[in-house]
Amino acid sequence: MRCPTCHVEFAVETSRSMPFCSPRCKQIDLKRWLGEEISLPYGEASDEDPRSRDSADSDHDD
Prior knowledge:
Radius of gyration: 20 Å
């Protein structure tokens, strides 16, 4: 497996910080999340999103 932080290949059974190769890489990743260097992407509201359906329906309730 490859560490998502440093990209070094490591044996899964030897790591105590899965999915990272070491506690150091785990801390680096946490710092990136907390510093908002990385995040999950925001998307547009889809037709499948119940919140977008409710607001669209309320426009036609007149």
